[in-house]
Amino acid sequence: MKKIFSAIFIVTLFASAFAQDITTASKFFQSVSESYGRISTYEADLSITADGKTMTAKVSYKRPSLLRMDFSNPQNQVILFNGDMLTIYLPGMSTNLQQFVTSTTDKAGMDLATPQGLALMSRYYTIAYEIGQSPVPLSDDNQEKVVKLILYPRNPAEAFRQIKLAITPDNKLIRRIEATTTQGQTFVFYFTNYNLNVEIPDQRFVYDSPATSNNYNNFLFSE
């Protein structure tokens, strides 16, 4: 009988130790969100791929909700989001688009790689490991180790059918976002060359389009 109890005790200890090494996907995502919450500003290089085309930009973020993308491809294109207003300047069409964004669903799509966007994703999406909790290569061509998460909407009315995240486990920075809309279109965002907590003046998030550009308001969600 003593041997049986000893065996049960050993198995219990082993199971307890093993359980302590398991980090749930939700807990890991929470640690990423908390890490971004400690970032006051960041700059990074960004590439966005959709429909076989790739755009490149320098992205700047400043707490609490200022986000700007200055594109080198297409050159001089600008996207600016201040938490409520989305501004897009399209130089090839000499057009300036502006849209007030009020719903939490649409805001989550605008600021995916910010504390606000991560908090909204945690609220409106279920979170799971895409492969497992152990780091895996970012891609076949890039052996950098990341943790991969996959998010599914709790409500089918959300903007994205699924979101995949690739996160560097040591610094909790997002390296890649793959977001698929409810219409089946997929956007892939690659972040490189992060520069954290740098001095960025508020003026950087004020954009005046050229006086000759055509202005269109409330363009995004009109029928």
From TrEMBL:
Domain of life: Bacteria
Secretion signal span: 1-19
UniProt-listed InterPro entries: LolA/LolB/LppX (IPR029046), OM_lipoprot_carrier_LolA-like (IPR004564)
Pfam families xrefs: LolA
Key words, A-Z: Lipoprotein, Signal
Stretches assigned to coiled coil: none
PANTHER family: OUTER-MEMBRANE LIPOPROTEIN CARRIER PROTEIN
Protein name (record): Outer-membrane lipoprotein carrier protein LolA
Phylogenetic placement of the source organism: Bacteria, Pseudomonadati, Spirochaetota, Spirochaetia, Spirochaetales
